[in-house]
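Render this sequence as a predicted structure.
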Amino acid sequence: MGHQISGIVGDSSLLEKFSLSNKIHFPVAISPTLSFLALSDTHLDDLFPDQGEFDPQMTYLSTALEDTLTDLSEASTVAYIETEYFGGLGVQGAVVFEGGKYVYGPTTASTGPISHALRLLGVRKGPTAIDEFDLVGFGRYRNNDEWIAAAQNAALAHPHPQSPVTVYPSRIDWWIPVVLTIPPLLDLGIGIFLLSISKQLGLVVIAVGVVIGALITALVFPCRYTVTDTEVLIRCGLIRQRIPIRDIVGVSPSSNPLSAPALSLQRVRIDLAQGYRLVSPADREGFIREIESKTPKN
């Protein structure tokens, strides 16, 4: 099971004001004074059209995000965190700003950075908690979509105007996971066999299998399509594309097998003024209806 979240941790009132000023979802409380504002790559793209350079250690920590964290920290200490786990393997990262400057990180490791950041924010684990990460409940939701869904309760209590956003996960054909798992499993099987001949060689081959599995996961997941009033945002692993609604001239069901950011052959063809894109939303009919409702009628 995977765990992939990213966002800002800080004083609840500070993050609520940030949400209001940027017309996005509210944060979720994780302690009596702190909240977590989940920010997906889509939100970061919208908040920071020109993100500048990215930190080499963390996936989404850009120069523009650093500037925002610096400004927020003038009022109260804030942290930005990320996790990227799959099948028990992966990394987490954290950076903390206080008084307009770095006080921790950016740091990444298999465990530890987020708990360290939480301690700098005043969180102290009790005798029953494994660590600060566990204490604030970062394990209760395993991805940003779940955190944002939980934040809707706060939005109902504190309504504010925001553009409607619909996220369509990709349909996944049964054979896709089979094809994707064959290379790493084959490598792991060979490595286990080689352990009886050469322990060192076997461990190397097993490690290569783990790396292949992690690489495939990073290249393919998550696969989803976000529709707003102005654009369609495509995210499939490392692939990220933005399609302005105004450029769409038509949408229709398709079974085109050409390579695309899609995990199913039950696809949707998005025709553009120049070319087309192929996607595979699980709710194909709903996706088509929504796009048609947003595109101007000729």
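Summary. Confidence is low (pLDDT under 50) at residues 154-163. The two ends are 46 Å apart (CA to CA).
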